[in-house]
Amino acid sequence: MTWQSIGECLDAAAVRHGAQPLLRYAGQTRSVAEVSRQTVQVALLLRALGVGIGDRVALMVPNGFEFPVIWLALARLGAVIVPLNAGYQDDDLSYTLNDADAHWLAIDGDALPRWERVRERVPAIRQPLIVAGAGAAPFWQLVADSPTQGSFPDLAPDTLLNIQYTSGTTGFPKGCMLSHAYWLGIGAVAADVFGLQPGDVDLTAQPFSYMDPQWNLIACLRSGATLAILPRFSPSTFWQAVGDEGATVVYLIGSMPLFLLQQPEQPARERGHRLRLVLCSGIHPQYHAEFERRWGVPWREAYGMTETGVDLVMPVAADALVGSGAMGWPIATKQARVVDASGADVADGVPGELLVRGQPMMLGYWNNPAASAAALRDGWFHTGDLVVRDAHGCYTWRARLSDTIRRAGENIAAAEVERVLLTHPAVRDAAVVAVPDALRGQEVKAYLVLRPGWAPDPEAILDLVRARLARFKVPRYVAFVADLPRTASERVEKHRLVRDQPDLRRGSYDASERIWR
Predict the structure, then answer these.
(1) Is the model's pLDDT at 388 over the cut of 50?
(2) Would you say 249 and 196 are in contact if contact means Cβ atoms under 8 Å apart?
(3) Looking at 317-321, 353-357, 433-437, 460-464, which range is the least confident one?
(4) Deepest in the core among 173, 180, 278, 456, taking most CB within 10 A?
(5) Which of the residue ranges 43-57, 182-196, 396-410, 498-512 would you say has the lowest mean pLDDT?
């Protein structure tokens, strides 16, 4: 079924599946009808406060009911959400709020000290709304007192709904403009791949500020399934939660499977579940068969990006490709190509950059037409991923082409970390690179050139980064060098820093172990 907006989808779901549980968190459940009704109340309250079509509302809350309810309420209004990672510190918080030109901030009460530190840097934000944690009761009392019925604008499918920030190849994170059609499209694909229907339970452990729980929510809305929300991903309690929630499908990312594999094997718990499918991005080929053996369920690859939603999926029936590293075939609404540096198509079996087009797809990068034009050329999105296509049209990932570090499922722009490092008075120059890591995929390493008179003190420098960036962006490894290799145009040649080094950890300070290697 085709809807024009998320609001239409929600209204239709309330009619078709009103009594079905939609959200479950911390032992509490809310039906489709209850969520629909509360989103009307939240939308009417926000409109009374002055939020209208196109207004940007930043939302920084931990997992719970608050994010999905407020997101759906903003969708009804035609407003725009700016999801903020709950781990953001001063620099990434103030940068994102200013870049999105957000005028509203809905926040967890426990995060107010961070807001107080940056409020003078973000003059456009009015008094923040406390919608979660300590101090949230007055907001939700106003919601409870709001009408349960109201009229909302008719929205076109390409109406902007999210400015979803993701790290790019250079500079600070860029805001991907994601429309109602984007979310409806990716939700439809997910519902189809998962085979969702009433009675299914889709478990999500990622923060709601990521795109994954959001598309899982739309998939459940479309199908009448339930979205069970965990506070966070915990390897030691994950399989207990899978069993307790009665999960039938789950989507995992990054190094989550490897963290699970490191746990002591408990066959009764790890196989005492209802799961019929695990979708995962970046399945380690050497462990794929072990994942299926240990947990007794098929694991299938899905490839996509914030910019493109979902592009490739491995069919559930493709047992013969387990452990091959293959990502799958394009979904029905996407096309894919593999090209060389000149943009010419390469033959099957030859590595090249993956290009995709079709729907879902972002509208572009917020307030950044140059970056949009560079990424979207002639209708094709340039992913920055090196892949190989085989004779059957199946794609396998090889490497990342850009200056982005992928750590435990998080994208980190090297330039963003470098800019913060350079604000420390001891640092004259900085270059950030990726270090291969068996558990997290990649770790962050900083090469630093000190100013004269300063002694190497990695913890003092890292404390500055910890105070200003999210924890996952903080370098694990630090190396001090006399200078950085540069081109004639003064660009740092990072490949010269890392080439001919079999182990990039050697000679570095390891902040995790607090030792020099």
Answers:
(1) yes
(2) yes
(3) 433-437
(4) 180
(5) 396-410
CA angle 223, 228, 231 (to 5 degrees): 145
Per-residue pLDDT of 103-123, as tens digits, reads 999 999 999 999 999 999 999
Whether the pLDDT of residue 366 is over 50: the answer is yes
Q: Kindly tell me if the per-residue pLDDT of 489 is higher than 60.
A: no
Q: Determine which helix (DSSP H) or strand (DSSP E) holds 301, and give its type and residue range.
A: strand 299-303
Report the run of H or E that residue 6 belongs to, with start and end. Answer: helix 6-17
Q: Which of 232, 206, 227 is nearest to 23 (CA)?
A: 227
Helix (H) / strand (E) containing 475: none
What phi and psi, each to the nearest 5 degrees, are found at residue 411?
A: -90, 130
Q: 173 with 416: CB under 8 angstroms? A: yes
Q: Which CATH superfamily is domain 404-516 in?
A: ANL, C-terminal domain (3.30.300.30)
CA 343 to chain centre: 28
**Exposure pattern of 53-65 as b/e (b: 16+ CB <10 Å)?**
eebbbbbbbbbbb
Q: How confident is the model at residue 196 (pLDDT cuts 50, 70, 90)?
A: very high
d(CA 209, CA 83): 5
Let me know: does 35 contact 22? Beta carbons within 8 Å: yes
* DSSP3 helix / strand / coil % (the chain, rounded to 5): 30, 30, 40
Count the neighbouring beta carbons within 10 Å of the beta carbon of residue 334.
Answer: 22
Q: Which helix (H) or strand (E) holds 337?
A: strand 334-339
Number of H helices, E strands in the chain: 16, 28
d(CA 399, CA 219): 30
Lowest-pLDDT choice from 172-181, 405-414, 504-513:
405-414
Cα separation, 15 vs 32, in Å, equals 9
Q: Work out the average pLDDT over 403-419.
A: 83
Of the candidates 167, 166, 162, 187, the one whose C-alpha atom is nearest the C-alpha of residue 177 is 162
Q: Which fold has domain 31-155?
A: Rossmann fold (3.40.50)
SS (H, E, C) 241-298: HHHHHCCCEEEEECCHHHHHHCCCCCHHHHHCCCCCEEEEECCCHHHHHHHHHHHCCC
Q: Is the pLDDT of residue 468 over 80?
A: yes
Q: Where are the alpha helices (DSSP H) in 167-229?
A: 180-194, 211-223
Domain boundaries, the chain: 31-155, 404-516
Quickly tell me which residue has 């990068």 as its tokens.
Answer: 365
CB atoms closer than 10 angstroms to residue 344: 9
